Amino acid sequence: MSSISVETSQNVQINYQLATLGQRVGAFLIDIVLLYISIFIVAVAFLVSFSSVFGGEDSLYFFVSMYLIVAFYHLGMEYFFNGQSVGKMILGIKVVRIDGEEPGFSNYFMRWMFRLVDITLTSGVAAIISIALTDKQQRIGDILGGTTVVRVRNQTASKRFHRIATDDSDDTAGRIAEVSRLTDTDVRKISDMYHKIVSGDHDYYARAKLMIQLKTATMKKLGLSQTDLESKDFIVQVLKDYRNYHRSGSAVNDEL
């Protein structure tokens, strides 16, 4: 299975398995089916409930609303749900930037705008040809938006962070007071990076090297010059200590 390597802003290289053409087509078909089933149910409900008054301008407003939902569905879903539509969530794939940064609205907008060429006007033929011929399996919208679609585990960043942070095993070892220097955004990036390394397509040595790079970048952020903790243990401890720091801080604020 094809894969790509991207370098994040923390100078950590992450390997992703690229989503297959079948997965991307499958996600698209799931979205279409779910979208039109939803529209059919809503349309029937409106007709049954308002059959005596449903007509004229009311009909126009209804159909315009349904059209806008269909037209902007993928843009809205990918922007608000971290690169995933319902179909992508079900099949465990998502949109990522090939430079390692988090996709922004402009990236999603470019993908959405060129759906007209990739899918609508060519019945998907342009997208299939482009994905098949490019190294990073990108359709035209991906190329112009600097994105591609990769496989991910169906688990949100908040759930992953919560799982680590609430694991109290050996929680007293190696407390790191400098976590107070981190922001929520910093910790979310560290957590995301940690799980990309753990779940990525790496062998043992590559994973160890990436974990060392993440540890080094995190220590620099914390202002630490040394630690006795191994790379993986250090990252886990940072996440735990950050959670405990904010939990204790909230308790102090409540008392005040």
N-to-C span: 56 Å
What fraction of the residues are assigned to beta strands by DSSP? 5-15%
Which quaternary structure do these chains form? single chain
Number of domain units: 2
Give the structural class. Answer: mainly alpha
Count of strand segments: 4
Principal-axis shape: globular
Would you list the SSEs in sequence order as H and E? EEHHHEHHHHEHHHH
Q: How would you state the average pLDDT, rounded?
A: 81
Major β-sheet annotation: 2 strands, antiparallel
Strand order of the largest sheet: 1-2
Number of helices: 11
Question: Which regions contain 5 or more consecutive residues with pLDDT less than 50?
Answer: 154-160, 250-256
What's the gyration radius in Å?
A: 23 Å
- Assign a percent range to the helix content: 55-70%
Overview of this structure, please?
The protein is mostly helical. It has helices at 21-50, 57-80, 86-91, 105-113, 115-120, 125-133, 140-145, 157-165, 184-199, 204-222, 231-255, and strands spanning 3-7, 13-17, 93-97, 147-151. The chain folds into 2 domains: 3-151, no CATH class; 157-250, no CATH class. Helix content is 62%, strand content 8%. A hairpin with a 5-residue loop joins strand 1 and strand 2. Helix 9 runs antiparallel to helix 10. Mean pLDDT is 81; it is low at 154-160 and 250-256.
